[in-house]
């Protein structure tokens, strides 16, 4: 796959140039096609939205039929190209770009492997794939059971017995394959297949259970190989062009930047304590309370809370007054003006390079590493269980919801734990999940304002 600059056009199609079939791709080899730099990143982001949606669905414990709907909707919303003939190219390009992104550590490989395999499993079902073509491509040796063999009453009886016991449709002539039993360990282990003379007799609807492990094992090996190529060659060769994109993608936040919350305008100093109680996520409530108690926050905390407050609409003058009121109690107002006011004006783009800094996303906060005396970070990740329980109790989370939240935090689903907290406190569902503290704030304000209007 060659990546070309945005000025270059006329990229050939994968389907026309390299003979890739129109069935569900197995991603055995990278396609021979040129990709525009902008598509390289855009397609990968679209696929990442699908994979993160799947990850969220699994973490929420969705049932197979709910997952099927989720995968269908996510794919339709994000992976369709405006030109239908380019759908396949988008699918291939996005997969191979994310392979580069997620090959770079054991943890990243594990996540990608698991999400891509789940995606493949559901697409296999949803897209009515050509089973024989897929088995051929995967190098699975099989025989279609002949009508003569199928005519054997003894065999049919055994096949019907197994089919009934596992609630599968009865096999039909032409829809039954013989494969060596070692190729279907999942079916053998769960006794879902009839075995005779070393062959497993597999119905069409069971093909998925041995195609998926093949897909998974191939992708797993391919990720390790990609990692070697990345470390030995690509990272250095592409250091000025693709490497920064690839490195940013794994931790990228994919939603709006909440630079300014236009929807709800400004919050004023007189309301700040009340909105902090009702609409700040736990990370910000913790910082806010620590500031009110200690009259001080270290740099990481000042950045995380300061940019969040800017995002929820606190104007620069109010921000200066707010921080000064607290800090001056500890360090005096002169020292505040000298040492701390600059940082606040800087966050608002009024000093230094005059960059208009945006608030931190959950991912950035979760990946931060607070030290002793720091209050920034994500409590679902950085608090001890005991402290998290106490903090959630203080927020007003019921004991029934609390156990679920603690469980999600323990299994490292921090944003889901935060989403469940939001749902418990606002008594409503939040299907999009919490990805940004300012999103938490906006959604909360929206709900509270609607409630106020309906009770007015
Ligand atoms: Fe804050 Fe996000 Fe953690 Fe919630 S998940 S506490 S919004 S960082």
Description:
By secondary structure, the protein is mainly α. Helix content is 61%, strand content 5%. It has 22 helices and 6 strands. It has a 4-stranded antiparallel sheet. The chain is elongated. The protein binds iron/sulfur cluster. Iron/sulfur cluster binds at residues 281-283, 362, 365-366, 378-380, 414-415, 418, 434, 437, 440.
What about the largest sheet?
4 strands, antiparallel
Bound molecules: iron/sulfur cluster
The global form is: elongated
Across the major sheet, the strand order is 3-4-6-5
Number of strands: 6
Structural class by helix and strand composition:
mainly alpha
Number of helices: 22
Q: Roughly what is the average pLDDT, rounded to an integer?
A: 87
Order of helices and strands: EHEHHHHHEHHEHEEHHHHHHHHHHHHH
Oligomer: single chain
Helix content: 55-70%
* Radius of gyration, in angstroms, nearest whole number: 27 Å
Uncertain parts? 5-22
Q: State the distance separating the first and last CA atoms.
A: 60 Å
β-strand percent reads under 5%
